[in-house]
Amino acid sequence: MRSEAIDESDRLYTEYITTQLGQLRRLAIVLCQDSHRADDLVQEAITKLYTRWHRRHAIDHLDRYLRSILVREFLDSQRVGWMRRVRLAAESPEMVSPQADSVEDRMVVRALLGQMPARQRAVVVLRFMCDLPVDEVAEILGCSEGTVKSQTSAGLVTLRRHVGGVSDGAPSPRSVAVRS
């Protein structure tokens, strides 16, 4: 009887991960700027979730919890610096942002995200790629809403400065519609 319950739990876990894997990998690629590192990051996140799978019923939003694990693993890897980063090419051809309007826009956004500090990149990606509200990003990153807002603002200023938009903090026509 116990092995049947374990088999059912494993089946549910596999089904859940199968539905989340694509989105999780896209998020990891944008954060890491490297598809191989992103795969490692996704593996770490889904492994951590598996070790806590028996507590899934106590978790209100499983998708948010899994994204939180992924982002925290990314930030931890940036702090610890467990590997030496060597960039062999200026751009990784596998990284694609479904939100960008053109190939040139995607290339510019990827390059700019790669230049941002890890935490600021995580905030910008969660806010605009994952379309999460400030309070949810704050919860995922374990920081205050004010920190999320200031990191978002700094990230947008960086993007605007390099893309040719305004850099003095005045809202651009596209940024007015963005919720804070």
TrEMBL record:
Gene3D superfamilies: 1.10.1740.10, Winged helix-like DNA-binding domain superfamily/Winged helix DNA-binding domain. Residues 21-79 form the RNA polymerase sigma-70 region domain. Keywords: DNA-binding, Sigma factor, Transcription, Transcription regulation. It comes from the Bacteria. Residues 107-157 form the RNA polymerase sigma factor 70 region 4 type domain. One of its GO terms (molecular function) is DNA binding. SUPFAM superfamilies: Sigma2 domain of RNA polymerase sigma factors, Sigma3 and sigma4 domains of RNA polymerase sigma factors. InterPro entries: RNA_pol_sigma-70-like, RNA_pol_sigma-70_dom, RNA_pol_sigma-E_actinobac, RNA_pol_sigma70_r2, RNA_pol_sigma70_r4_t2, RNA_pol_sigma_r2, RNA_pol_sigma_r3/r4-like, WH-like_DNA-bd_sf. One of its GO terms (biological process) is DNA-templated transcription initiation. Pfam families: Sigma70_r2, Sigma70_r4_2. Belongs to the sigma-70 factor family. ECF subfamily. NCBIfam families: SigE-fam_strep, sigma70-ECF. This is RNA polymerase sigma24 factor. It comes from Rhizocola hellebori. The lineage of its organism: Bacteria, Bacillati, Actinomycetota, Actinomycetes, Micromonosporales.
